[in-house]
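Try it yourself: sequence plus iron/sulfur cluster, in.
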Amino acid sequence: MKLDIANKIVYVRQSWLNDLAICPERARLGLVRPEFRTGSDATIIGTAMHHGIESVLGGSASSREEMLQAVSGKFDELAKQPHKVTNIDGDKIPDYLASMTEAFYEGILPEVELGGEVEKFFRVPLGIVVQGYAVWLEGTMDYLTPSGVIWDWKTASKAYYAKEKQKSAVQPTVYTYAVAYERKDIENVGFNYGVMVRGDVPKHQIVPISRNEAHHNWLKHSVGGALHSALATSTQRNWVMNDSSNLCSANWCSYWSVCKGAFNMND
Ligand code: SF4
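Structure, out:
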């Protein structure tokens, strides 16, 4: 959430909405302590895979081997920077990168319409006003095909549960809203997760998510509710803390040390 006080606009990203759903305090700390936000080995793997995919879609890598070179080079570069170490076996990461590269190149790429826009930034009005602020959505989608299918690349420890994503994932709702707003020439905007599962054996998954006007109206309603609370509450005081999610841990929450981790509990 970013306030443009002069123009009375509040900009919202789907990643912040996700944080808000996981733990409101995490979303608040993201605003007031951004310097605490650090990546992990899992996020570095994800960034390296994104880089390799962009190399393929942008034309600088024209084979699986060249894609893997781009992926591995990016991983080695990012791994030199400080990051959290999760439960991923570090010795196996090169094998994971190779198997996820194969999963993308052989399994997902043949299904992707080429010639689209890579890393497409968007900034669109949501059409609601909260406490005098016009609400805008902004973000960057991984890939938009010429015919209007959005792809988001995911690296994951296990396959996605498609039904759960269809029911409540915010990202496809935000992204399809943005494309539908900006591209009136596209009749039906599509959304696919292209998932590469981390493991020794290449495993890919394509998860199509459908969104329509009803989902977009729900988005307006739910974002309006969230922003009413956020704007009415000072960011200098704590928000509601949800420590029941799996992401509330030293490995998965950047703010652990200034939140639950500061209480020195053993469990
Ligand atoms: S440590 Fe837990 S309760 Fe605190 S911000 Fe992170 S997820 Fe929320």
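One thing you can check immediately is this: The two ends are 32 Å apart (CA to CA).
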